[in-house]
Every structure is written in C-alpha cells, then in structure tokens.
Amino acid sequence: QVQLVESGGGSVRPGGSLRLSCAASGYSASAYCLAWFRQVPGKAREGVAGIGTNGVTHLADSVKGRFTVSKDNAKKILYLQMDSLKPEDSAMYYCAAGGTCSSFPYWGQGTQVTVS
C-alpha cells in the first residue's frame, strides 16, 4: 500500500521560502513518477512540479526560477523548495505518485501554504 505524507507547509510573508516534504512508504521511490500539485478552493488542481522515473524534473511555468523539486530515493522523500513566494502561491499542496507521469493514483492528504 503506497502512502504519502506531506509536511512543511505554513504561513510566510511574500518573498519568503518554505520547503515541503513528502514522505513515502510502500514502494520504491525510484520506480514511480512523483509530483506536487496545488489547489485553491473553487479552482482546478494545478500541477506544480514533478520528477519522472528517469530523474528528469518538470516545473510549471508559474514557478520556474522560484521552485525546485528533488527527491531522496534512499529516504523515500520528495521535496519542493519554494523561494520568492508570492500570494498567488497560496494553496493546499499535495504530493502524488504514479507508475507514469500521466496518471497519479496515490495522493497525500495535503499541506497548506499561505503567503500574505
């Protein structure tokens, strides 16, 4: 059973930084595509960043140059380093895992990020 637990959210001023972590269990981190999504109430979920099974990273245009995604396969932790945060980055952030980067059947419970 794949389980994902996010942490690291909180409140920060504009321009500040946060690092989100997603601890995974029940699978090999190197064998799954891992990703971060975010969602604001009333809006569609948005893909933020991801790492494919080949280690290639992807970032949404809205966060390029400010966010960095990485993972530690040995510790089975996915990270999202968020710098130069803006109020529009405020959302619930979720990590997700899937056998490919086109489908994510496994999700964490989310961690709230508020920038104000």
How would you characterize the overall build of this protein?
The chain is mainly beta and 116 residues long. The chain has strands spanning 3-7, 10-12, 18-25, 33-39, 46-51, 57-59, 67-72, 77-82, 91-98, 106-107, 111-115. The strands form two sheets. Strands 2, 4, 5, 6, 9, 10 and 11 form a seven-stranded mixed sheet that branches. The chain has a four-stranded antiparallel sheet with strand order 1-3-8-7, with no helix packed on it. β7 and β8 (77-82) form a beta hairpin. The protein starts with a strand and ends with a strand.
Overall mean confidence score, pLDDT: 93
Poorly predicted regions: none
How far apart the termini lie comes to 37 Å
**How is the main sheet built?**
7 strands, mixed
Q: Strand tally, please? A: 11
Assign the structural class, choosing from mainly alpha, mainly beta, alpha/beta, alpha+beta, or little secondary structure.
mainly beta
C-alpha Rg (nearest Å): 13 Å
Secondary-structure element series = EEEEEEEEEEE
Query: Tell me, what's the shape?
Result: globular
- The amount of helix comes to under 10%
Q: How many helix segments?
A: 0
Strand content: over 45%
